[in-house]
Amino acid sequence: MTAIAAPIDATRVEAAMSRALSLAEHGPAVGDNPQVGCVLLDGDGTIVAEGWHRGAGTAHAEVDALSKVADARGLTAVVTLEPCNHTGRTGPCALALIEAGVSRVIFALDDPSERADGGAERLRAAGIVAERGPLAHEAEELLRPWLTSARLGRPFVTVKWASTLDGRAAAADGTSQWITGAAARQRVHEQRARHDAIAVGTGTVLADDPSLTARGDAGELLAHQPVPVVFGRTPVSADAALRRHPAGLIEVGHRDLATALPELLSRGIRRLYVEGGPTLASAFLRAGLADEVLVYLAPLLLGGPRTALDDLGVTTMAEAHRLSIRSIESLGDDLLVTCRPDARSSSHLTPHS
Known about the structure:
One of its GO terms (biological process) is riboflavin biosynthetic process. Residues 11-131 form the CMP/dCMP-type deaminase domain. The chain is of the alpha/beta class and 353 residues long. Helix content is 27%, strand content 22%. The chain has eleven helices and 13 strands. It has helices spanning 10-24, 61-66, 93-100, 119-125, 136-142, 144-152, 182-192, 202-208, 236-243, 257-266, 278-286; strands spanning 37-41, 47-52, 76-81, 104-109, 129-132, 156-164, 197-201, 227-231, 250-252, 271-274, 292-298, 323-331, 334-341. The strands form two sheets. An eight-stranded mixed β-sheet has the order 9-8-7-10-6-11-13-12, sandwiched between helices. Helix 3 runs parallel beside helix 4 (119-125). Residues 346-353 have low confidence and may be disordered.
């Protein structure tokens, strides 16, 4: 049985968890696996090794850290997420920690996924202290998209639109390029690269003939390309271009979002960037399926009928969709307002902490 080490000073444990969270941020935001960081502490609370998960098929954070010490017996592992307890492309991290002889494992959050949880129980059964540690809120924030997907069985959904200050997404003649400036448009490309897929509707494909790629400042394709997802039939006029997309193409031939989202998750889509027009954006909002809302505001006034959103099913102020503003950022002449559904809002919104 593993020898139990004396508890490490709480201040050192918190500092170690903070470092583990910083390491986790280096991991890819997309893909099936969460961003996880791990540090190994000796009896004095000094970091002797650290690791982080670099993506599917690579060593998990705990194994990465263990690979950097000759002897881990008696060490304390501080991890941002409960060690996994399943065999996928790699073996269970809980087993790796047991075999390495660590004496204590401190983790910020329980693993909510059905196939991977139980790591803490397995550690305890082997005589290792496994306990929840500090900075759970910070870990929740870092892993919010992955946790939301794991808990709800669907992709984390970001709904984005660009509009003028008076809420118009296009001029009366239908023109919409470009409402926002270069800095805002580049931020959109960066956000696309942090999602597994971009969703649009048939109307957007017809009106804009979008490339749906993620590009850098010089127009080059970024390393990660989100998969384009078209709700409705892909127009024949756009077939050739979209079917040459470097990440392929997914067509969803219906608008039943509650059915479509789990289907997308089963195809590896954990983060979905909804970038269609008012019809698709409104459908996600109306169904309470928006986990994050990004609004790019340009200092323009257009007037007219072409609003950024369609009917949301709201007939009175008491039914309004309430959002919590998380940040406001200046991008050139434009503003990016990042929001979340407000937990105080009516039941048609899906609140998340």
